[in-house]
Design goal:
- With about 350 residues, this protein is α/β, with parallel strands linked by helices.
- The protein has helices at about 10-20, 45-60, 70-80, 95-100, 170-185, 185-195, 210-215, 225-235, 270-280, 285, 290-295, 305-315, 325-345, and strands at about 35-40, 60-65, 85-90, 125-130, 135-140, 160-165, 220-225, 240-245, 255, 260-265, 295, 320.
- Strand 1, helix 2 (about 45-60) and strand 2 (about 60-65) form a beta-alpha-beta unit.
- Helix 5 packs across helix 6 (about 185-195), helix 6 packs parallel to helix 13 (about 325-345) and helix 8 (about 225-235) packs across helix 12.
């Protein structure tokens, strides 16, 4: 788990949360006037600027805890008896699962800037905040010649040099399973992952931890997501290239996998949490999604023209975007994960 203190005024509270992540008891933050965010990794630089703006406007400091998509939901669930999080941000289908488990408040996203955002929950429990897409990354030297297809990833030269985040734990890892189901069908996806296990280094609960390993050549190939990977290339000059594996016909495809947020059940600072949700969905905040997060705004009335948005559009050229049925994905998730574990552990 990576935990980043984003504001000087919140350092003490974040350090307290850091200790809690190692087995202690988390604090509720800076008195009654604060907000604590548990978020899947990938939006750190965007959060840093937006949280600073939010604090400047409202006087409310933000405490930030970052982990894998499944981990942040699990933590909220474990803390039901002593809630610490105000705002939960994770990826589908984990956000739908969190809602189904009663971890998000009905109407928690409010009726302000959340109104009309595509993909919002009918009961007001969650709303997308930044749009994103699953992708793969490859080190240009360690993976040379660069893979282009799903079959390429099965090559013996990638043995011990390929890793993907674990379905059921990481949102992007679950996305790998869903994408393979889309390409090969459910049984075909399991058969493929069973073969891919010969090259797989092992499980990983966080996709973000794979980026530096690919960049330094420890790994040749890993899964990722377009927003986080492009952000790493732009901000950190990471040494990897993005690709969408093609099927046997040469077709490349992916699907929308947005960061989605909601107000956590029992939020200690619910009013502050609602204000932060509304702020992050405001037009000025969404206008910066491309420039600062290298993501895609969820507002249909916001059309950034920054260079990073151009990079996103270029990366998606020629790639078919399909839409999962998230209710069906959530319903089948336990069975699909159990089948996946059996397929890779034979």
């Amino acid at each position: 788990m990576r935990i980043r203190p984003l504001l000087a005024t919140a350092v003490l509270a974040v350090l307290t949360l850091l200790l809690a992540a190692c087995g202690g008891t988390a604090a509720t933050g800076s008195g009654g006037n604060s907000v604590t965010v548990y978020s899947a990794d990938g939006l750190g630089p965007w959060y840093q600027k937006r949280f600073a703006e939010f604090t400047a406007q409202t006087g409310i400091p933000v405490n930030y805890v970052e982990a894998g998509s499944g981990e942040v939901v699990s933590r909220v669930d474990k803390e039901r008896g002593n809630p610490q999080a105000d705002v939960l941000v994770t990826l589908p289908p984990f956000i739908q699962r969190a809602a189904g488990q009663g971890l998000l408040q009905n109407g928690g996203i409010g009726t302000g800037n959340a109104a009309g955002i595509p993909g919002s929950d009918a009961q007001g429990r969650y709303v997308p905040v930044v749009n994103n897409y699953p992708v793969f990354i490859a080190n240009p030297t360690a993976a040379a010649p660069l893979p282009k297809t799903w079959d390429d990833l099965l090559a013996p030269r990638f043995a011990g040099k390929l890793q993907y985040s674990t379905p059921g734990q990481a949102g992007d890892g679950t996305a790998v399973l869903l994408q393979l189901q889309h390409v090969f069908g459910k049984q075909g996806a399991l058969d493929y992952l069973g073969k891919l296990q010969a090259n797989n280094v092992g499980p990983s609960s966080s996709t973000g931890k794979l980026q530096p390993k690919v960049s330094n050549g420890e790994l040749a190939v890993a899964n990722g997501d377009l927003q986080m990977n492009l952000q790493s290339i732009v901000a950190d000059h990471s040494n990897f290239q993005l690709f969408f594996p093609a099927d046997a016909t040469g077709a490349r495809s992916t699907f929308a996998l947005p960061y989605v947020m909601g107000l956590a059940v029992g939020a200690p600072h619910a009013d502050a949490g609602k204000k932060l949700i509304d702020f992050l969905l405001s037009a000025p905040a969404q206008q910066t999604v491309g420039s600062d997060a290298v993501g895609v705004s969820v507002r249909t009335d916001v059309h950034p023209t920054d260079p990073n948005t151009a990079k996103i559009n270029e990366a998606l050229q020629g790639v078919t975007i399909w839409q999962p049925d998230w209710d069906a994905v959530t319903r089948d998730l336990d069975a699909d994960i159990a089948a996946y574990q059996q397929a890779v552990n034979k």
